[in-house]
Write a structure and sequence with these properties.
This protein has about 400 residues and is α+β, with helices and mostly antiparallel strands. It contains 15 helices and 7 strands. The longest helix has about 35 residues, at about 250-285.
Length: about 400
């Protein structure tokens, strides 16, 4: 079982072993290739949002407050890479660098075992995605057990992100950017440029969530089932280039989508199903606790750029959103989402001065209901619920 202390202290241990330099070079190269990483915000948002429809009726009380946090915080794990040096290896595993996987199609499911077999620095270099997923699942279950509903939603958001990464084929191979097949840049072409272009065409109804008897085995089975799509992506990329003579044209992206849309949509659907199933399983294993919407805290930190107040709230036409920034020239984004987690408007995407700022949001022709302000700054995300009453 992966212990939190193993991951949080990995880099300290490597420093003692004088192997940090190698790891940092490796991670820097990976981050450069990955850019925004995995499916990007739009893809992860769709996966986490798709989870909601998988949940059984017994979890209906999670909607919309809890499930919305899971959706809008879908990319917190990516945002942490700028401030947490341990975060990057949690997003991938170069599983085909394991000789036992090449020979037998599987690796040990236990972190201590693979470290004994290959050494700690080597394992970290290959990425620790499945064990990070297991660790996050354990944290989700523990949050359910202690009745910490805000923390449980944030852990579920991270769990969805790591599961989404496991369903992105180029996150589970050494040839993650086509560097071994003469297709450099395929990572961003497939996961970012194509997905951002066709995100509205990725439509699916995931299977109903099920209780998972063997969580560890389930997480690793996702890797084994998704790995064959590595070749599918590479072949589609090569075909689209051969047909269009380009890697950058809209014709290339459209051709790439035509060759990958069936299995890509299936990967999204199964990622949403996997998230719903693990949330359901964690809840059952925690004793099936029930909460009410007011059990969720407002997400803020006095040491970070944060919401101060929203006034009036409820409101009928417009509301003033006050934000406090402890530092000058803080780059911040303020977005408005509906109760389904759909992005409606970006009302601020600029620097903030030190101190308090006020941003006005006009609801226009929107219907009465619950909406959410999402503030992103300094690698943190705050959420504030507002009520439009007409």
């Amino acid at each position: 079982m992966l212990k939190k202390t193993i991951i949080s202290n990995v880099f300290k241990k490597l420093l003692k072993e004088n192997k940090m330099k190698k790891v940092l070079y490796s991670i820097s190269a990976i981050l450069l290739c990955f850019m925004l990483s995995s499916w990007g915000f739009k893809g992860h948002n769709k996966i986490n949002q798709g989870m909601e429809s998988t949940l059984p009726s017994g979890l209906s009380f999670l909607r919309p407050s809890w499930t919305l946090i899971v959706t809008v915080h879908c990319s917190d794990a990516d945002d942490r890479k700028d401030i947490d040096p341990d975060e990057a290896p949690r997003h991938y595993i170069d599983i085909d660098n394991y000789p036992e996987f090449v020979q037998n199609g599987v690796i040990s499911q236990y972190f201590d075992t693979v470290v004994q077999q290959h050494g700690l620095s080597w394992v970290i270099d290959q990425g620790i995605l499945p064990w990070a997923t297991l660790n996050t699942y354990d944290s989700l279950k523990a949050a359910f057990l202690r009745g910490d509903w805000t923390a449980s939603a944030l852990f579920a958001a991270d769990l969805g992100h790591y599961l989404g990464d496991a369903h992105m084929p180029l996150h589970i191979t050494r040839n993650y950017n086509g560097q071994y097949s003469g297709q450099s840049g395929v990572h961003s072409r497939y996961e970012s440029k194509m997905i951002n272009r066709v995100i509205d065409q990725i439509v699916y109804t995931p299977e109903a969530a099920q209780q998972i008897a063997n969580v560890r085995g389930f997480i690793f089975s996702n890797l084994y089932e998704n790995y064959p799509y590595v070749d599918s992506v590479l072949l589609a990329d090569q075909y689209a280039h051969d047909v269009t003579g380009s890697y950058t044209s809209t014709a290339y992206l459209d051709t790439l989508w035509s060759k990958t849309k069936n299995f890509t949509t299936g990967l999204f659907s199964h990622a949403s199903y996997s998230l719903g199933s693990l949330i359901y399983t964690a809840w059952v294993e925690a004793g099936s606790p029930v909460f009410f919407p007011n059990a969720i805290d407002e997400l803020s930190d006095l040491n970070q750029t944060r919401f101060v107040q929203t006034s009036p709230n409820p409101f009928s036409e417009s509301t003033r959103i006050s934000i406090e920034s402890p530092e000058p020239n803080t780059l911040a984004t303020l977005e408005i989402y509906d109760s389904r987690g759909v992005l409606l408007d970006t009302i601020w995407n600029d620097v903030l001065p030190k101190g308090r700022s006020e941003i006005v949001w006009k609801a226009g022709e929107l219907n009465a209901g619950i909406y959410f302000c999402v503030l992103k700054a300094n690698g943190h995300i705050n959420t504030r619920k507002i009520l439009l009453a007409k």
